[in-house]
Design goal:
The chain is an all-alpha fold. The protein has one domain. 66% of the residues lie in helices and 0% in strands. It contains 10 helices and no strands. α1 packs antiparallel against α3, α4 runs antiparallel to α5 and α5 crosses α9. It is globular.
């Protein structure tokens, strides 16, 4: 499969995973009594209402097109959509409500991973180029969802895992943890991308994101794969179904 076409499929899969993640936050908030996202039209699946120019278009595009141009395959995914507006004071219990709303995003990604694995069972019914395209899309969509869901479980605000921590900790500790939200994204970017790159130049292997994805994402994926009928390693599954481009 042409590398540029593969890059386009990967980009579409990543954007879809990000948008469905955000929409799930809005629906969870609606179920708990906050219709802010609904009133602002943010429960739509129309990508245009969720697009953040940097997080949804520029950054993922740079990652994925660079991989296509360098023939490195689709291994790195990073991006975000415009956050769905939430009014936590409209929940009966704002702290617990925000925790549940935060959990909805990663849980949606894991549900999509499971549904995509189930969909692989029906791909033998397809033929010709469509078969390769569908397999390639599903492979990237599975990786994007499991990576996005696991990444967002990092217990650092403003990531979903950080907001879950705020809901679980005793109130005094929760207030301290919530203050990290002001600098949380800087901590994540430094710890996940900048510091590993700098240390790598001195031969020091430090990759907390990779360690987190393996420690948390692997057992989640294996459970979902076993439930869908594929009790094998992640990369073996994806490559056996043509995630390398379908030839």
């Amino acid at each position: 499969m042409n590398e540029w076409f593969q890059g386009g499929l990967s980009f579409a899969a990543l954007v879809m995973a990000i948008i469905l993640h955000e929409v799930s936050h809005g629906y969870a908030a609606l179920a708990l009594g906050d219709d802010t996202a609904k009133k602002l039209g943010r429960l739509s699946l129309n990508p245009l209402v969720h697009v953040d120019r940097v997080g949804t278009i520029i950054l993922p595009g740079i990652f994925l097109l660079a991989q296509a141009a360098l023939h490195t395959g689709g291994g790195v995914f990073f991006g975000w959509a415009k956050p769905v507006p939430i009014a936590p004071w409209r929940f009966r219990d704002p702290r617990r409500g925000m925790m549940l709303v935060a959990l909805a995003g990663p849980l949606a990604n894991f549900a999509l991973t499971f549904l995509s694995l189930l969909a692989l069972n029906f791909t033998p019914l397809l033929a010709g180029p469509v078969h390769a395209y569908v397999l390639s899309f599903l492979g990237v969509f599975i990786m994007a969802n499991i990576a996005l869901g696991t990444f967002n479980l990092l217990p650092i605000p403003p990531l979903d895992g950080g907001r879950v921590m705020v809901g679980l900790l005793p109130e005094r500790l929760a207030m301290v943890w919530a203050r990290l939200e002001r600098v949380g994204i800087i901590i994540v970017l430094l710890g996940v991308f900048v510091l590993p790159s700098l240390l790598g130049q001195y031969g020091i292997q430090f990759n907390p994101l990779w360690a987190w994805l393996h420690a948390i994402g692997d057992p989640i994926f294996r459970t979902l794969a076993a439930a869908a009928g594929y009790p094998r390693d992640l990369f073996l599954i994806l490559h056996s179904f043509g995630a390398d481009g379908g030839g």
